[in-house]
Amino acid sequence: MSFWSYLAEVCVLCVVECGLATFILLKWKWSSNAAAKVGALSKCKETPIVFQYQHNFDENGIIHFLGAEAAQQVEGAPSGSKAWLNPAMDGGSLIVTRSSDGVGKASDITGRDNVSCHTSGKKCNDCKRPSASLSRGNGERLECSQWWMIDFGKSGRVRPSKYSLRHGCPNNGWALRSWRLEASIDGQNWVVLRTHQNDCSLDAAFGNATWAVDNNFSESTTYSIEKVNLQSGPYRYLCIINTGMNSTGTDHVALSGMEVYGEFYAYMKE
């Protein structure tokens, strides 16, 4: 039996068991490695794809995986096992936004290149990121801190175990020092996955670093799409939110890369 014939039978079973009115199957032309990873994801209780960290900005992360998928779906895109496109560009499955536009594009954070990219550093009066108004910890209140957010809505959901960032300047200026990684299921309610205070890990030209995420999920667990909760996820949104001055003493957030490792679930119920 061919792979696609087998997958079609599994999809039919999923429709019957879950009572879904419609099931849309996208016939992705992935590499054999990618197809093998995704093969089990048409079950109602999904076994996640687990992405394991080896080194900073390797090819083992979730964002890199989605970029390889994007390269296979866009007409005229490069072909071959190393083909890759930014998954937040046209034809990709990610939506990236930030609190304000300075240099570069919001989508540069899901790219693979060292590029100058940062927010404007201005106070954001029309902040669409809930709960972004917070205290710096010294009593000073920010109207709206600078942030960067990735929406995985078109691709699936994530439960991170580690994440990487790359600085967005060709020197150590404006490097993040104090920030939080937050996650959300619905874009309204947020949970803190990791807090950084006076962290100098990115203090270099396009410096990069990786951190473990503060959670207790088991990589061997199965997941029911009917039992999402804010504390354990999996999540649709990840957000980097600035909570203090950067290395230069301003509110700019300078980032040119992000990668996420851990569990990835496709075709999640909205």
What can be said about the biggest beta sheet? 5 strands, antiparallel
Global geometry? globular
Low-pLDDT sequence parts: 1-45, 130-143, 216-226
Strand content: 15-25%
Average per-residue pLDDT, rounded, comes to: 74
Compute the number of strand runs. Answer: 11
Structural class: alpha+beta
CATH topology name, in short, is Jelly Rolls
Please estimate the helix content.
10-25%
Find the CATH superfamily.
Galactose-binding domain-like
Spatial order of strands in the largest sheet? 3-4-10-6-7
CATH 2nd-level architecture: Sandwich
Distance between the termini: 32 Å
Q: Could you name the CATH class?
A: Mainly Beta
- Radius of gyration using CA atoms only: 19 Å
- Write down the secondary-structure element order: HHEEHEEEEEEEEE
User: How many H/I helices?
Assistant: 3
Offer a quick outline of the entry.
This protein is an alpha+beta fold and 270 residues long. Helix content is 13%, strand content 24%. It is built from three helices and eleven strands; from the N terminus they run H-H-E-E-H-E-E-E-E-E-E-E-E-E.
Describe, in plain words, how this protein is organized in 3D.
With 270 residues, the chain is an alpha+beta fold. It has one domain (50-266): Galactose-binding domain-like (Jelly Rolls). The protein has 3 helices and 11 strands; from the N terminus they run ααββαβββββββββ. The chain has helices spanning 3-18, 32-38, 62-73; strands at residues 45-46, 49-51, 95-98, 147-151, 156-167, 179-184, 190-196, 208-212, 223-224, 237-242, 255-266. The radius of gyration is 19 Å and the shape is globular.
